[in-house]
Amino acid sequence: RAPRRCSVCCKSTWAQLREICRAERLRCAALGVTRRNLGEFEVEYLCDYKRVGGEEFYLVKWRGYPDSANSWEPRKNLRCRGLLKQLHQDLARAPGGPVRPGPRGLPPRASSYLVQKAEQRQALRRWEQHLNNTRSHRGRIAVENEVDLHGPPRDFVYINEYKVGAGVQLTPVAVGCECSDCLAEAAGGCCPGASHNKFAYNEAGQVRIRAGLPIYECNSRCRCGSDCPNRVVQKGIRYDLCIFRTGNGRGWGVRTLERIRKNSFVMEYVGEIITSEEAERRGQVYDRQGATYLFDLDYVEDVYTVDAAHYGNISHFVNHSCDPNLQVYNVFIENLDERLPRIALFATRPIRAGEELTFDYNMHESTRMDSNFGLAGGGLSSSPRSRGRIECKCGAAACRKYLF
Ligand SMILES: [Zn+2]
Ligand SMILES: [Zn+2]
Ligand SMILES: [Zn+2]
Ligand SMILES: [Zn+2]
Fold first, then answer.
1. Which terminus of the chain has a smaller tally of CB atoms within 10 A, N or C?
2. pTM for the predicted model, two decimal places
């Protein structure tokens, strides 16, 4: 039994530890020595391919064994059909065009691409697991890159709610509502009524007020329970979503794996809340891409900014579109300070499973083009801070060509 809270540096390499496990017939999940491959050999991935006298051979990386133990195996010995298919798919997409195997294997650039691709897949799977262990919401997160060799982003920490930065204080709400049924029999207009605002949702949790109007949800002081129809954003992401690599130079993107109904809550835009002065300073340090993660909270006045560059949730990966399917709303739940709304993204139209999710990074522009401009109670003007000109690649018919 391992002693608790005690760790020592290990002087052996992973390969040596695996050897020890094998010799002692010990299983270790972290080292990849499992019951399955302790007795028999398990293919981790295939890293090369050749044809000798009409027969196909594959160079196998064995799970739990070092690279030096890789061995050529005839096709008939291999039962890993998925990995074989993967190898041929990867080869078809390898940079430099299609390759033909010689009697000694593939050209080095092709075999090294296969190994990089296999290692990338493992890194993305580990990151996917990490994201799913970190999320507090119901919706699962998948990760996929069938486009290039980019691995998980460095310098990104998944968070589920705002991280409060220096000089920022959230005041917890002091009062809640006393309704017997917040939707049907709201006492004094329920929580939104307390600030003369409208009840935001229908019985299915779809937003029914126009963008620009604030959403006041029920809070921890309210008498109602967790099934109250005025608790939507606080329940978090419920759809299964996928972070994927886009094929046209827009980096990562997010698509939904499930159908989303119009006006449904999809996700919150979270990050670190900082003062606008701090945002100004960081904006000068960030490159132009980094600057697009700064989202000014200018519902009433421009005092705070959400910085999702290094701390964020899945919204960090959602791309801009000039014709988006998500719309921003300002939401107040446990904190009623109007300078610190939460930013929630709702579907503007029905979204099919597999469709990419987008929102408009530059609401100022779109409101200017919208006849609502001037009517909007400030809410529509929330947008990431503009700095420099970034060309837009959203591909929408009504594309404005520049993000800022
Ligand atoms: Zn109520
Ligand atoms: Zn309430
Ligand atoms: Zn309620
Ligand atoms: Zn565009």
1. N
2. 0.85
